[in-house]
C-alpha cells in the first residue's frame, strides 16, 4: 500500500479545525444472545454456540433478551441519556456471508436511549463534555476468516471460513454528536473518551470490555475544516481501532493525512478506513456515502420495547457512581499524589489497579507495577497493559515482594514469566528457581571472598568510606545471580568489613 | 372408497378413542387413498415413509391405557411452509429442495404431542406467493372437483388433500387468503386465526406481519379441534398473544345447535357488493345470508371505504417484508448452491443461486419489495401502505361497533382453469380481494362452504370475520350456518365431490 503523505500535526492544527465523532460498540456479557437462547460465550469451537435463530434457518424467529434490554437501559442512564418509553427494532438489509439472515436487527429511528453526555477527564485535569446522540441495541455479526491470502484480508484469499458464534451477540452502539473544539487535544480526547466508556461499562458490570477481544470496538470519525469555515469537511470513519493507544494514534494519523491532502488542494474521499496497528497507518476500506441504502424498515417479528417506569427507576437507583466521582474517591482512598494519579488515569489503568488492590495488593505497589513495568512491556509490544496480565496475578506478585521472597528485580523476571504463560507468580518462582537467597551463610562466604579479592575497597570501607561498599555489593549480587536482597547484602558487607578489621 | 377416509376428524377421533379403529388402520386408509388419487391431484410434495410407525406408537400408548389427546391417531397433512425434522421442507421452492430442518415448527410439534400422525407435506405456491398453486416449483395441484382447475393458493395442496379425502385435517398458512381462498374453491373449511393466536415459529416467513397458521378441514368442528391443538402462546414467537383462549371446538359444537344466530348482527360490506363477483358466487352468498336472517340474524350494511385500497397496500407491504425474509436463501448455510463457472466470489455464488433457485413470481415480488423499501421511495410506497393499513383497521373497528361479524364471499370467483391467470399477475392478485383486509388488520376470518355456483357447479364459500381475539365467535357462526345448510341439503357439500381414482 502506498504510503500516505502526512502534514506536521501542529501545522495541520494551524490550518484546520478537527471535528470528531465516535461510534463505540459494546458487546454485552449476557448469558445468551440478543435474540436467541444460544450461549453468549467467547472462545468456543467455531459454530457451536448457535441456534436456528443465529443461523437464520427457515422459520426461525427472534426473541428479545430481557437482560440485554436492562443492561442497555443501565448504560443509557450512565451516559445521562433519556430512556425511550417505547423503542423499536428495525431491519438493516444487506448481503454479507457473516450476516446469517442477510439483515441485521438493529435499532434505527427509535433507539432505546438518546440525548446524553459524558464527562471525560484529560491528563491535565481538564474536563471535556462529550455529547451523546444515542445508544441503541443491535446484534453482532459472525466472524469471517480469510484463508490463503498473505494479509489475512479478503483480497487475495483462496476461501473464507465463517463462524456464527458471534452472530447475535448483543451490542449497544453508542454514537456521539460531532465533537467540536477538540483542537490539538483531539487524539487525547479520543483516547480518554473510549477509556471513559470502558470504565462505565466495567463499573456497570455489563461487558468484559476487552478491546483486544473486540468486546469494545471504536469507529473514529474525523473531518477537518479550514479555519473560519462553517461547513463541516468530508469525514472518514476509521475502523479496527482495537486499543486505547490505537484510538489516539489513529485520530492523530487521520488529522495529519487529511491535512496533507487538503493543503495540497485535494479532496477527502468519504470512506471507511482500516487502522493497522503494525504500521501505525490507516488504509482505504470501502467507499461510504450517505446514500448507502440499507432499506431499513421496522422489524415485524418483534414488538416495541416498552420498559416500565418502575424498571427504569430501579435501574437508575442501582447505577454505580459516575467515573469522575469514582476517580475522586479512589484518589483519596489510595492516597496518591496528583502526579501519581494522573499517571494511572492516563494509562487507562484505574480498573486494573482497583482490581489489583481488591486482590490484596497495596495501592502503591499496584500503581507501581501497572504504570511501571507492565506498561513498559505493553508499550514495547504495542498492546494494552490490561491484555498482558490479570490483576490477581499482579497482586500475587506484590505479595511475594512484600514477604521478601522476591526482590523488585527478581519480581520483574517473574512478571515476564507470568506474561509468557508460565503460570502464576509462585509457579514461575518455583520453576525458574528465582527466590531470594536468604541464607546468610552463603552470602557471607561470597562477601568474604569479594572483600579479600578487593583489598583496596576493604581499606576504604575501613576508613569509613561506606559508599565504597557498592563495588563489593555489586560483585556479591552478581555472584548470587541477583537472587539476593541488596539491602541485606549491604548490611552484611559492612558487618564483615568491620570483622576483618578486628 | 373406504369409510374411514369419509369420516370427519371428529368422527374418526371418536372411533379411535373407542378402539373401533386403530391409528394404523386410519393412517393406512389415508396412505392408500393418497396412493390412489394423488397422481391426479398432486396435493402432496412428500408422503411420509414412517407414518405407519408413528401410528403404531399411538396405538401402543392407547393400549397401555395412556391418556391421549382428543385427536390422537388422526392423520394430518402439513403445508410445506412448516418445517419438519422428519420430512423435507421446501416451501414449494427449488432453492430448498431436500432441505431438512433441525427443528419442528411449533404447530407441528404441538400436533405430534397431541398424537396426530403427519402423513406428508402439501404443495403450495413457491414461498406462499400465489392464489393457484401454479407457482409451485414442483408442478401445480389440481382441484379435486375438476382436475382442469386450480385448487386455490397458496395452500392448494392442503385444501385439495382434505377435499380429495387424502387427509381429514391439514395445516395451512394465510398471508392474504392462502387458507380461505383454497377452502372456497375446494368446498372445504379454512380458518385464519387472529394474528398472534397461533405460533409462527417454524413457518417459513412470507410476510411476517401478515402470516398466520391455521386449520384446513372439511367441517367447522374439525377446524376447531385442530385449532385447539395448535393455538396458544409460544415464547419463541414474540408476536404470539398471551391470551387464554376458549375452546374453538366447544364453540363449534355450541354453534351447531343453531341458537347463536338469533339476534346476531351480520355486517355486509357495501364496497363488496358491486361488480367483480361471479354471478353464482353472489347468488349463493345472498342465499346463505338469507338463511342466517331466517334464523333471526340481523343483517346490517356497513361501509369500509378503505377496503378498496387493501390489495394495493398489501402488494407493497407483502413484497417489502418478503424481500427481506427471503434474503437468507443465499446458499451459504443451507439449501441449493449454484457455483458459477470457474468458481466466483461469494456474491456471485449468492446471485447465481438465487437466479436459479427462485421462480418468476418470487423474483417479481423481491424486486417490488426491494424497490418499495428503497431510500426515496419508502415514504411513498411502504410508508403509505402502512397508513392504509391503519385506515383499514379503523374501518374494521367502526364496523365492529355495529355488527358482531362481517360476511363476504370468500373469493370473487369459483375455481378458474389452470393456466388461465398465470400470465396476468394483477388478475391473480384480485383473487384475494375479500380476504386481504383481515390479514392487514390482524382479525380472524373463516371460509365455510355454502354451495355450488349454478353456472359451473363449483364450490363457493362464505367468509366471516370477527374482531381480533373473537375466533370462537367465528366457529359458533360458521358451525351454525354449516349445520343449517347440511340439514337443508340432507348431506354435506363435500360428499358431492367427484369420487376420483376410479373407485
Automatic annotation (TrEMBL), chain A:
Any Pfam family the entry gives: GatB_Yqey
Give coiled-coil spans as residue ranges: none
Which superkingdom heads the taxonomic lineage of this protein's source? Bacteria
The EC number(s) attached to this protein equal 6.3.5.-
Tell me which SUPFAM superfamilies the record gives: GatB/YqeY motif, Glutamine synthetase/guanido kinase
Q: Which GO terms describe its molecular function?
A: asparaginyl-tRNA synthase (glutamine-hydrolyzing) activity; ATP binding; glutaminyl-tRNA synthase (glutamine-hydrolyzing) activity; transferase activity
UniProt keyword annotations, A-Z: ATP-binding, Ligase, Nucleotide-binding, Protein biosynthesis, Transferase
Example GO biological process? translation
Record-linked InterPro entries: Asn/Gln-tRNA_amidoTrfase_suB/E (IPR017959), Asn/Gln-tRNA_Trfase_suB/E_cat (IPR006075), Asn/Gln_amidotransferase (IPR018027), Asn/Gln_tRNA_amidoTrase-B-like (IPR003789), GatB (IPR004413), GatB_Yqey_C_2 (IPR023168), Gln-tRNA_amidoTrfase_suB_CS (IPR017958), Gln_synth/guanido_kin_cat_dom (IPR014746)
Locate the Asn/Gln amidotransferase domain: which residues?
351-497
First-level EC class: ligase
Fill in the subunit field for this protein: Heterotrimer of A, B and C subunits.
What does the sequence similarity comment in the record state about its family? Answer: Belongs to the GatB/GatE family. GatB subfamily.
Q: What does this protein do?
A: Allows the formation of correctly charged Asn-tRNA(Asn) or Gln-tRNA(Gln) through the transamidation of misacylated Asp-tRNA(Asn) or Glu-tRNA(Gln) in organisms which lack either or both of asparaginyl-tRNA or glutaminyl-tRNA synthetases. The reaction takes place in the presence of glutamine and ATP through an activated phospho-Asp-tRNA(Asn) or phospho-Glu-tRNA(Gln).
Q: What is this protein called?
A: Aspartyl/glutamyl-tRNA(Asn/Gln) amidotransferase subunit B
Gene name, per UniProt, is gatB
TrEMBL record, chain B:
List, alphabetically, the InterPro entries matched: Amidase (IPR000120), Amidase_CS (IPR020556), Amidase_dom (IPR023631), AS_sf (IPR036928), GatA (IPR004412)
- Keywords attached to this entry: ATP-binding, Ligase, Nucleotide-binding, Protein biosynthesis, Transferase
Pfam families, A to Z = Amidase
Task: Give the record's GO biological process terms.
Answer: translation
Q: How does it assemble?
A: Heterotrimer of A, B and C subunits.
Q: What does this protein do?
A: Allows the formation of correctly charged Gln-tRNA(Gln) through the transamidation of misacylated Glu-tRNA(Gln) in organisms which lack glutaminyl-tRNA synthetase. The reaction takes place in the presence of glutamine and ATP through an activated gamma-phospho-Glu-tRNA(Gln).
Q: What is the lineage of its organism?
A: Bacteria, Bacillati, Actinomycetota, Actinomycetes, Micrococcales
**Which residues lie in coiled coils?**
none
* Recorded GO MF terms: ATP binding; glutaminyl-tRNA synthase (glutamine-hydrolyzing) activity; transferase activity
Q: List the source organism.
A: Okibacterium fritillariae
Provide the Amidase domain boundaries: 25-474
Gene3D superfamilies from the UniProt entry: Amidase signature (AS) domain (3.90.1300.10)
Q: Name one GO cellular component term.
A: glutamyl-tRNA(Gln) amidotransferase complex
Task: Quote the EC number.
Answer: 6.3.5.7
Q: What is this protein called?
A: Glutamyl-tRNA(Gln) amidotransferase subunit A
Recorded catalytic reaction(s): these are:
L-glutamyl-tRNA(Gln) + L-glutamine + ATP + H2O = L-glutaminyl-tRNA(Gln) + L-glutamate + ADP + phosphate + H(+)
Q: Enumerate the HAMAP family for this protein.
A: GatA
Q: Which residues form the active site?
A: 79, 154, 178
Family, as annotated: Belongs to the amidase family. GatA subfamily.
Amino acid at each position: 500500500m502506498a504510503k500516505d503523505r502526512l502534514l506536521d500535526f501542529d501545522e495541520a492544527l494551524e490550518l484546520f479545525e478537527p471535528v470528531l465523532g465516535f461510534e463505540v460498540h459494546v458487546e454485552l456479557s449476557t448469558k445468551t444472545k440478543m435474540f436467541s437462547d444460544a450461549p453468549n460465550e467467547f472462545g468456543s469451537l467455531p459454530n457451536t454456540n448457535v441456534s436456528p435463530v443465529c443461523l437464520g434457518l427457515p422459520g426461525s424467529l427472534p426473541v428479545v433478551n430481557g437482560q440485554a434490554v436492562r443492561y442497555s437501559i443501565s448504560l443509557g442512564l450512565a451516559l445521562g441519556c433519556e430512556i425511550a418509553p417505547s423503542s423499536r427494532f428495525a431491519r438493516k438489509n444487506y448481503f454479507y456471508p457473516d450476516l446469517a439472515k442477510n439483515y441485521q436487527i438493529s435499532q434505527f429511528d427509535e433507539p432505546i436511549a438518546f440525548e446524553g453526555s459524558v464527562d471525560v477527564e484529560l491528563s491535565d485535569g481538564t474536563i471535556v463534555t462529550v455529547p451523546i446522540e444515542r445508544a441503541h441495541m443491535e446484534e453482532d455479526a459472525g466472524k469471517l476468516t480469510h484463508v490463503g491470502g498473505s494479509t489475512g484480508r479478503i483480497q487475495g484469499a483462496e476461501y473464507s471460513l465463517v463462524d456464527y458464534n458471534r452472530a447475535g451477540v448483543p451490542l449497544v452502539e453508542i454514537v456521539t454528536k460531532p465533537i467540536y473544539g477538540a483542537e490539538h487535544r483531539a487524539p487525547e480526547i479520543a483516547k480518554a473518551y473510549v477509556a471513559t466508556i470502558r470504565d462505565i461499562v466495567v463499573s456497570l458490570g455489563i461487558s468484559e470490555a476487552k478491546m483486544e477481544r473486540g468486546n469494545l470496538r471504536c469507529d473514529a470519525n474525523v473531518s477537518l475544516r479550514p479555519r473560519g469555515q462553517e461547513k463541516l469537511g468530508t469525514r472518514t470513519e476509521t475502523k479496527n481501532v482495537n486499543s486505547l493507544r490505537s484510538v489516539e494514534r489513529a485520530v492523530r494519523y487521520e488529522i495529519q493525512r487529511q491535512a496533507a491532502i487538503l493543503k495540497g488542494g485535494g479532496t477527502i474521499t468519504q470512506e471507511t478506513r482500516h487502522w493497522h496497528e503494525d504500521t501505525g497507518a490507516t488504509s482505504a476500506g470501502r467507499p461510504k456515502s450517505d446514500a448507502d441504502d440499507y432499506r431499513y424498515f421496522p422489524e415485524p417479528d418483534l414488538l416495541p420495547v416498552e420498559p416500565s417506569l418502575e424498571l427504569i427507576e430501579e435501574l437508575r437507583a442501582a447505577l454505580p457512581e459516575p467515573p469522575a466521582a469514582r476517580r475522586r474517591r479512589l484518589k483519596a482512598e489510595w492516597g496518591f499524589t496528583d502526579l501519581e494519579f494522573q499517571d494511572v488515569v492516563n494509562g487507562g489503568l484505574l480498573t486494573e489497579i482497583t482490581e489489583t488492590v481488591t486482590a490484596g495488593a497495596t495501592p502503591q505497589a499496584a500503581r507501581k507495577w501497572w504504570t511501571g513495568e507492565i506498561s513498559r512491556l505493553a508499550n514495547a509490544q504495542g498492546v494494552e497493559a490490561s491484555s498482558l496480565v490479570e490483576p490477581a496475578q499482579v497482586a500475587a506478585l506484590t505479595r511475594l515482594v512484600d514477604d521478601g521472597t522476591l526482590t523488585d528485580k527478581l519480581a520483574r523476571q517473574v512478571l515476564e514469566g507470568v506474561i509468557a504463560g508460565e503460570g502464576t507468580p509462585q509457579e514461575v518462582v518455583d520453576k525458574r528457581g528465582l527466590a531470594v537467597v536468604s541464607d546468610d551463610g552463603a552470602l557471607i562466604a561470597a562477601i568474604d571472598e569479594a572483600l579479600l579479592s578487593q583489598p583496596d575497597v576493604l581499606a576504604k570501607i575501613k576508613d569509613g568510606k561506606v559508599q565504597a561498599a557498592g563495588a563489593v555489593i555489586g560483585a556479591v549480587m552478581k555472584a548470587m545471580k541477583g537472587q539476593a536482597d541488596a539491602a541485606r547484602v549491604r548490611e552484611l558487607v559492612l558487618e564483615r568489613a568491620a570483622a576483618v578489621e578486628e | 372408497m373406504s369409510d374411514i377416509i369419509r369420516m370427519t376428524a371428529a368422527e374418526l377421533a371418536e372411533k379411535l378413542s373407542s378402539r373401533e379403529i386403530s391409528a394404523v388402520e386410519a393412517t393406512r386408509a389415508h396412505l392408500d387413498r393418497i396412493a390412489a388419487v394423488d397422481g391426479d391431484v398432486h396435493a402432496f410434495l412428500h408422503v411420509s415413509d414412517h407414518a405407519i410407525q408413528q401410528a403404531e406408537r399411538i396405538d401402543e400408548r392407547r393400549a397401555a391405557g395412556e391418556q391421549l389427546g382428543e385427536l390422537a391417531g388422526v392423520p394430518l397433512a402439513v403445508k410445506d411452509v412448516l418445517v419438519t425434522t422428519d420430512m423435507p421442507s421446501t416451501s414449494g421452492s427449488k432453492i430448498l429442495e431436500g432441505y431438512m430442518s433441525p427443528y419442528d415448527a411449533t404447530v407441528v410439534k404441538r400436533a405430534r404431542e397431541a398424537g396426530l400422525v403427519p402423513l406428508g407435506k402439501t404443495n403450495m405456491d413457491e414461498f406462499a406467493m400465489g392464489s393457484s398453486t401454479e407457482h409451485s416449483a414442483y408442478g401445480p395441484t389440481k382441484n379435486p372437483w375438476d382436475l382442469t382447475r386450480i385448487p386455490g393458493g397458496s395452500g392448494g395442496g392442503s385444501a385439495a388433500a382434505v377435499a380429495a379425502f387424502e387427509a381429514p385435517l391439514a395445516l395451512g398458512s394465510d398471508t392474504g387468503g392462502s387458507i380461505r381462498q383454497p377452502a372456497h374453491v375446494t368446498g372445504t373449511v379454512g380458518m385464519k386465526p387472529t394474528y398472534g393466536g397461533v405460533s409462527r415459529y417454524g413457518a417459513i416467513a412470507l410476510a411476517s406481519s401478515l402470516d398466520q397458521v391455521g386449520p384446513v378441514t372439511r367441517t367447522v368442528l374439525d377446524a376447531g379441534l385442530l385449532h385447539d391443538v395448535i393455538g396458544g402462546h409460544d415464547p419463541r414467537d414474540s408476536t404470539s398473544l398471551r391470551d387464554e383462549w376458549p375452546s374453538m371446538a366447544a364453540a363449534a359444537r355450541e354453534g351447531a345447535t343453531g341458537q347463536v344466530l338469533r339476534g346476531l348482527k351480520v355486517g355486509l360490506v357495501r364496497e363488496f357488493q358491486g361488480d367483480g363477483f361471479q354471478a353464482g358466487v353472489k347468488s349463493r352468498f345472498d342465499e346463505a345470508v338469507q338463511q342466517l336472517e331466517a334464523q333471526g340474524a340481523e343483517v346490517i350494511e356497513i361501509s369500509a371505504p378503505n377496503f378498496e385500497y387493501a390489495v394495493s397496500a398489501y402488494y407493497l407491504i407483502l413484497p417489502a417484508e418478503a424481500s427481506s425474509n427471503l434474503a437468507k436463501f443465499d446458499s451459504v448455510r443451507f439449501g441449493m448452491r449454484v457455483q458459477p463457472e470457474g468458481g466466483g466470489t461469494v456474491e456471485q455464488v449468492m446471485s447465481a443461486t438465487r437466479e436459479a433457485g427462485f421462480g418468476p413470481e418470487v423474483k417479481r415480488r423481491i424486486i417490488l419489495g426491494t424497490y418499495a423499501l428503497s431510500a426515496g421511495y419508502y415514504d411513498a410506497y411502504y410508508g403509505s401502505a402502512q397508513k392504509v393499513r391503519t385506515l383499514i383497521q379503523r374501518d374494521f373497528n367502526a364496523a365492529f361497533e355495529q355488527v358482531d361479524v362481517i360476511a363476504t364471499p370468500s373469493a370473487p370467483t369459483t375455481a378458474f382453469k389452470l393456466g388461465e391467470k398465470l400470465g396476468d399477475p394483477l388478475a391473480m392478485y384480485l383473487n384475494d380481494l375479500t380476504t386481504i383486509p383481515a390479514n392487514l388488520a390482524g382479525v380472524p376470518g373463516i371460509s365455510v362452504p355454502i354451495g355450488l355456483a349454478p353456472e359451473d357447479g363449483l364450490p363457493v364459500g362464505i367468509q366471516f370475520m370477527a374482531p381480533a381475539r373473537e375466533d370462537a365467535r367465528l366457529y359458533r357462526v360458521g358451525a351454525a350456518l354449516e349445520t343449517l345448510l347440511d340439514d337443508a341439503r340432507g348431506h354435506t357439500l363435500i360428499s358431492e365431490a367427484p369420487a376420483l381414482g376410479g373407485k
